[in-house]
Specification:
296 residues; alpha/beta; Rossmann fold; 8-stranded mixed beta sheet; 9 helices; binds NADP nicotinamide-adenine-dinucleotide phosphate
Length: 296
């Protein structure tokens, strides 16, 4: 573990997506115990209500609220951003210190979203891209702004399918998932490049390792579900990567490093493909086009 100067997060406002289960839920719990104000995002109101109840049960004085959005819909991501901005302003604040893009989906089948995009690409990559774009004005108001996107070791040994990025012609669940986790690293690297070296905001891609959660049981069936059911038991408890995310948030020194990819509270070299500038730029431009925006 890197030694570091710690930033006091009891003053921080943190947005966490995928906050109703697994790593995201444990991250909210950990942050609220340390006194941060957390806005948790969940897929449905019912899931949000249950998660909020569990957080309050374990941390009665938690400063926390939950809001629901289906992140497969770009329209809902925009509505969510507007809601988050108004929640932040209601607290008398004009800043978000950290955005944790944690939500992700796995789908056995090709699922077309509201905007006609592939589900995993929409939830795992485009939603973080668009949410970060929408919230950036508030993140820039923080002295220590961080955008942490939860990637995965599965980004190694894969590449972008430029000719069929939404995998409409040849859909494969695992290949589609791996491509989105590679996109998380390319996005974080390119965001830093575009923000420039003097920016107070830094982006990081986080690798949680193999974690015992239900992610591979939700949009799957048959062999994929069976494999994940076996594999997840070898994974670590979700509170371990959650603590590592909180460590990244608290760490004041990593803001000045060039390390993008972090695992177990240490920087790690991401795949060679993920360090290709041409790939990062190309993905950025495609993401802008699919989200219908021009960023910078
Ligand atoms: N588990 C691992 O071994 C592992 C390894 C590497 C990377 N990761 C990454 O870790 C992150 C967290 O995953 P996890 O393992 O903690 O799994 P998880 O418990 O299934 O958490 C995923 C979260 O994303 C939410 N979500 C899924 N689809 C959504 C949608 N359409 N709209 C809004 N929210 C949606 C889920 O909501 P619900 O609660 O409603 O399902 C859940 O809160 C992901 O980015 C994943 O890729 C996990």
């Amino acid at each position: 573990m890197f030694m570091c100067r710690k930033y006091n997060i009891s003053e921080a406002t943190v947005v966490v997506t995928g906050a109703t289960s697994g790593i995201g839920f444990e991250t909210v719990l950990n942050l609220t115990k340390k006194g941060a104000f957390v806005i948790g995002v969940g897929r449905t109101q019912e899931r949000c209500d249950k998660a909020l109840e569990k957080i309050i049960e374990r941390t009665p004085d938690a400063k926390v609220c939950y809001t629901a959005a289906d992140l497969s819909s770009l329209r809902q991501v925009r509505d969510l951003s507007a809601r988050i901005k108004s929640i932040v302003r209601e607290t008398g604040n004009e800043k978000i210190d950290v955005l944790v893009n944690n939500a992700a989906a796995v789908s056995n089948w090709y699922v077309s979203t509201e905007e006609g995009l592939e589900l995993q690409f929409a939830v795992n990559h485009l939603a973080p891209f668009l949410l970060t774009y929408e919230l950036m004005p508030l993140i820039k108001n923080s002295d220590v702004g961080k955008v942490i996107t939860v990637s995965s070791g599965s980004h190694y040994r894969t590449r972008m399918r430029w000719k069929d990025i939404l995998m409409r012609k040849h859909y494969n669940c695992l290949s589609a998932y791996k491509q989105t986790k590679l996109a998380n690293v390319l996005f974080s690297t390119e965001l830093n490049r575009r923000l420039g070296p003097s920016s107070k905001v830094r982006a990081f891609a986080f690798d949680p390792g193999l974690v015992n959660t239900d992610i591979g049981l939700k949009g799957t069936a048959g062999i994929t579900k069976w494999v994940w059911q076996k594999r997840k038991n070898k994974g670590i408890s979700p509170d371990i990567p959650a603590s590592a995310i909180v460590w990244l948030i608290e760490n004041a020194d990593i803001q000045n490093t060039n390390h993008v990819y972090w695992k177990d509270c240490k920087p790690k070299a991401p795949s060679r493909y993920s360090q290709r500038e041409d790939a990062a730029r190309r993905l950025w431009e495609i993401s802008e086009r699919l989200c219908g925006l021009k960023w910078f």
